[in-house]
Amino acid sequence: MSSQNSKGNDWVWVTHFLAIFLAVVCMGFVIYSVVGIDNIDIARATMGFSSAIIGVILGFYFNREQLTKESKEKNYFSSEAVDIYWFNMKLQAIIDAVRQEIEEEPEE
Predict the structure, then answer these.
(1) Which of helix, strand or coil describes residue 21?
(2) What is the pLDDT of residues 51-95, one digit of tens each?
(3) Model pTM?
């Protein structure tokens, strides 16, 4: 599945690369803070920062399909509502025209 911008260029690889790069860097921070840092406060801060970034990346990628699906459904139902509204307006115009025609007819 590929996403394309309006010019037709494929940019999906950029988001995947950035996510993988940031996840690897953050995991490197976590490993370095566990192995190489002697000060416990700095290690906690580093692990907290890295864990938060990794959590955001994982949350985005696990929830991306659901967000895309909901966005497509919203657009579909929105366009359906607009179609129904315009159909209703056309029917109302027809009803008004018929009503006016009936009122203008002379009675026998």
Answers:
(1) helix
(2) 888 888 888 877 777 778 888 888 888 888 888 999 999 999 999
(3) 0.46
Q: How far apart are CA 74 and CA 80, in angstroms?
A: 10
Q: How many other β-carbons are positioned within 10 Å of the β-carbon of residue 84? A: 10
Cα separation, 93 vs 103, in Å, equals 15
Cβ atoms of 51 and 71 within 8 Å: the answer is no
- Angle at the Cα of 96 (from 90 to 100), degrees rounded to 5? 145
Q: Helix, strand or coil for residue 3? A: coil
CB 37 within 8 A of CB 43: yes
Question: Residue 10 carries which side chain, given as an amino acid letter?
Answer: D
Residue recorded with tokens 């494929």: 10
